[in-house]
Every structure is written in C-alpha cells, then in structure tokens.
Specification:
GO terms for molecular function: metal ion binding. By secondary structure, the protein is mostly helical. The protein contains 19 helices and three strands. The two termini are 51 Å apart.
C-alpha cells in the first residue's frame, strides 16, 4: 500500500493550495483543515494496515474535493489493475457526476468507466457509455466497442454503428473489423449480398474476397471463384497458402491451367516460397526439370527457406536415382521439422497457430493472423 501514500500526498498538498488561492482566506483554511484531517484519517488506516477502511475513506474525499481529476484517475487505474473493479467503478462514477470536469475529462472518465464495466462483465453498461462516446465523435471509443460487439457476436450493431458514423473509421484495423462483421452477418443469414458491401469499404480487407471466392468454389462456379481469388492473390499475395490449391483447381476445371501459370509468373517477384514452388511444379509439368532446379536453387540462395529446401530435395531425388533413398530420408526429416512449426502467426501480437483465425484469440485484432513468413514460413 505504500505506493498509494506517495500517490495521494500530492493530492492533499494540491487541495490546500487551490483552496487557499481561490477562496476567502478563512473558508479556505477551514476547508483545508477539514480535508487534511480526513486525509490523515485515511492515511492512518493505511499505516495501521486497515486497508479497506483507509481506501474507502480516501475515495470519499472525492465528494468533498474533486479538483485533482488526474490523481483520482490514476488511483482508479491502480484499482483496476489490482482487480478491485468495484472501487475503480466508484471513482469513475463519482468523477462523471462532478460539475467541474471539462468535456475531455468527462469523455475520458466515461471511457475508463466503460472499460471497468467490461472487465466486471457489465456489458450493457459498457455499451451504453461507448455508444454515447461514438455518437459524440470520440474515436477512442471505437476499439473497445468493436471488441465488445465481437465478444457478444452482435454483428448488426457494429454494422449499424459504422454506417451511421463511417467518418470516424479512419484506421484500417477498424475498417477490417467492420468488413468481417459484414462477413459474419452474411454467413449467419446465408446472404452473400451482405458480404459484397464489405468490398466497397475505404480500406481493403482479405476476408470478403476469400469468402466470396470460397462460396463460388463450393457451388462449382469456378469463373466467379477465379474472379474473387485472383483479385485477392494480387492484392494480398502473402495470403496465397490458404486458397492457392483451390484456385489452381478452379483453373484446371475450366481447362485454363495455362492462365494459372501466367498468374504465377506475375506473382513471382512479390510472392513467398510457396508461389515459387508452384512455379517449379508448373515447369515440371511442362518437362523442364533442370530449369526448375536452377530457378529454385538461385531463389534459395537469395531467400533460404525450409519449405523451399524440402521441395528442392524432392526435385534432386527425381533427377538422381543413385542417391534417391538418401535424399528421401533427408526430406522426411525436414518435413517432420516443418510439421512442428505453426502455419500462421499474428502480425500484431505474435500469437501462433496451425489454424487460420479471422480474429486473433490473443489480441482480438481482425485479419492480423496470416501464413507464417521467414525461414520456416511460406
């Protein structure tokens, strides 16, 4: 509790100075003595290790003199971190009722109170304050209310909020979240028309194009699947591992495999090792094994990857029957190693997984989990 003593000492000193400067002298001294007396009682409770009584006493001082908002906000934050949400809520509620708060202080206190409510599981109360802040134009409320609607799966509320206040959504992360809200609502209602709205948002998102392509693919509408997925792989080439096999099959079903090869050539410069492996497979199908080996070897010299090395071993094994068994054994070891590595990683918090998640289970950001990169990645 000693940190509370140091935190609150400036409050007592500040109260004395403010009251002495802005009030009649006798009234200031009288009020100052009253505050100091009450403050001393609170400190005595703390020093006597009667923490509950001491903290309640100090909180009650807020009703007498709430001139130091910053100090009380800091105290409330400390309570929240300690898990004492009832006390954090009490301070923020008292602050909101105080007439001396300016507009920014009131908004900050309301936002902090909403955070308290969320941590305490009082989601309806949190939503009420966050909606008020959004309507008042405070962008700081977007992150918590998006997380709140994600948690409660109230996609329509999030969409309605965006459509009513789209001018506040200037951060790509927030727009991506809304794009995913459209996707979730579309899947819930089995209505791809809702999903198409997400494509026209002012920041491009991955999921709408992926879901529309996937929907067309499952319906064997390969023309539409190619349309959406080609757009997706051109804009977000790093996401190719999630759907490139299905994209290749879509071209094959339409007897347009040569167009898929042409697409791979266009993506070589900005694609990862998987694009390069697919390019090598295309060369093999055309009988150019030497060209494939040279291309992959040169690529690995510039950007070495485990997956690329594994595929090179397979190519060398096909070409060298004398050492095929040895190369196959080495490749099995390399493949086993690859299997231990996560396929996906969050670009915001570093969370790793073998499964794709549209919203990160760790940091709650949308579309930050992507196929792994680097020496173990794609």
């Amino acid at each position: 509790m000693i940190e509370l003593l140091f935190l609150l000492l400036p409050v007592a000193a500040g109260y004395g100075w403010i009251m002495g400067k802005n009030s009649a002298k006798n009234q200031a001294h009288q009020l100052n003595r009253q505050i100091t007396s009450e403050y001393s009682k609170g400190l005595k409770f703390l020093l006597d290790r009667e923490e509950d009584q001491g903290l309640e006493h100090l909180i009650n001082l807020l009703e007498v003199a709430a001139d130091s908002v910053e100090h009380y906000s800091t105290l409330a934050t400390m309570f929240r971190r300690r898990g004492e949400l009832d006390r954090a809520i009490k301070i923020h509620e008292l602050l909101l009722k105080h007439p001396s708060l300016d507009e920014q202080q009131a908004a900050t206190s309301r936002l902090e109170l909403a955070e308290d409510y969320i941590m305490a599981g009082l989601l309806d109360g949190a939503e009420e304050h966050l909606v008020w802040l959004v309507k008042a134009g405070y962008k700081e409320a977007l992150e918590p209310i998006i997380n709140l609607y994600s948690q409660t799966r109230e996609w329509e509320k999030g969409i309605n909020m965006y459509e009513a206040h789209s001018e506040l959504f200037t951060k790509p992360q927030h727009v991506k979240a809304i794009a995913n809200f459209y996707c979730e609502a579309a899947l819930q209602d089995n209505d791809t028309q809702i999903m198409r709205k997400a494509i026209s948002l002012n920041h491009k998102a991955i999921r709408p194009l992926y879901e529309l392509g996937h929907s067309a693919f499952t319906k064997e509408d390969y023309v539409k699947a190619i349309y959406y997925w080609r757009e997706l792989i051109s804009q977000f080439t790093f996401f190719a591992p999630v759907f490139i096999e299905e994209l290749a099959l879509s071209y094959q079903k339409l007897n347009l495999t040569h167009q898929f090869y042409e697409l791979l050539n266009e993506l070589l410069d900005k694609g990862g090792v998987l694009i390069k492996i697919k390019h090598c497979q295309a060369l093999l199908e055309q009988g150019h094994i030497e060209q494939a080996i040279k291309f992959l070897t040169d690529s690995l010299k510039r950007h070495p990857t485990i997956r690329g090395f594994s595929f090179l071993l397979q190519l060398l094994a096909k070409q060298n029957n004398d050492i095929k068994d040895v190369l196959d054994q080495i490749d099995k070891l390399v493949t086993s190693y690859i299997a231990t590595k996560p396929d996906f990683q969050c670009q915001h918090c570093g969370f790793t997984s073998h499964t794709i998640y549209w919203v990160c289970p760790s940091c709650k950001h949308w579309e930050t989990i992507v196929p792994s990169r680097g020496i173990d990645g794609f």
